[in-house]
Amino acid sequence: MPAGFRLLPGRLSRQQQEGLIDAVVAAQATAPFWRPSMPRTGQPLSVTMTNFGSLGWVTDKHGGYRYEPAHPQTGNPWPAMPALLTDLWQELADYPALPEACLVNWYTPESRMGLHVDWDEAATDAAVVSISLGDKARFRLGGPKRGGKTASMVLSSGDVVVLGGEARHCHHGIDRIYPGTSTLLPAEHFPAGGRVNLTMRRVNLA
Ligand code: MD3
Ligand code: FE
After folding, report:
1. What CATH number does the domain containing 125 carry?
2. Predicted TM-score (pTM) above 0.85
3. Rounded distance from Cα 117 to ligand 1 centre (Å)
4. Which residue range forms the structural domain that includes residue 14?
5. Is 118 annotated as a binding residue?
6. With the C-alpha atoms ordered 195, 47, 29, 159, is the resulting torsion angle positive or negative?
7. What's the Cα-to-Cα distance from 149 to each of 59, 117, 140, 143, 176, rounded to whole Å?
8. How far apart are CA 170 and CA 29, in angstroms?
């Protein structure tokens, strides 16, 4: 694994995981999951998304990848980040400012995320802190250049990954979801089951 990669298996208790899912469910009132589209082609992503924080990551055909202060469909400001998240950031990120954004990705069993590098943030000196909730997923991590060697690992509910240093600039993606491997997501709110990933990001330089 590249320098700056840290996996903390089972870092969150079941109760903490449930609290985060409750916050994602509560967020639906003002910031419902929506399906973003790729720049230029307008091809829809296979994940649906929402955000917490003063800024949220969005993408659409005409505006491309960017951070916005409001939900693209409701126009509401994103809901505040739960305190558990900012506490975790302060414990793990080793950065002198709080994250502005927490992107929430919901993967149903058919969802994938292709290999990519996150470079829409000015603060590339800050780590990204990722939290896995719900079904297990195969996470793939490569190098800074396209087409290099990659390695994969399974992420489980309650795992936390810190991507700092060199790892921050590495390609990564989600190959597949393993359906039915967690009981965390309540069927009334997540009828298709699957996995929710939270990624905290510092966007602007501190
Ligand atoms: C490695 N999400 O939202 S989180 C994304 O599980 C994203 O939803 C995946 O990639 C998910 O952009 C992976 C782990 C992650 C997040 C950011 C990274 C790994 C990273 C940035 C640089 C290197
Ligand atoms: Fe990413």
Report:
1. 2.60.120.590
2. yes
3. 8
4. 5-201
5. yes
6. positive
7. 28, 15, 10, 7, 19
8. 35
Q: What is the dihedral of CA 68, 73, 75, 81, to 10 degrees?
A: -60
Phi, psi of 21 (to 5 degrees): -65, -40
Total domain count, the chain: 1
Query: If we measure between CA atoms, which residue out of 133, 159, 130, 155 comes closest to residue 11?
Result: 159
For ligand 1, the distance from its centroid to the CA atom of residue 118, given in whole angstroms, is: 7
Residue 138 counted as domain residue: yes
Give the whole-angstrom CA distance, residue 129 versus residue 160: 7
Q: For 58-69, write each residue's pLDDT tens digit.
A: 999 999 999 999
| CB proximity list for 204: less than 8 A, separation 6 or greater | 100, 122, 123
Residues in the chain: 206
- What is the per-residue pLDDT across 122-139, written as a single tens digit (0 to 9) for each? 999 999 999 999 999 999
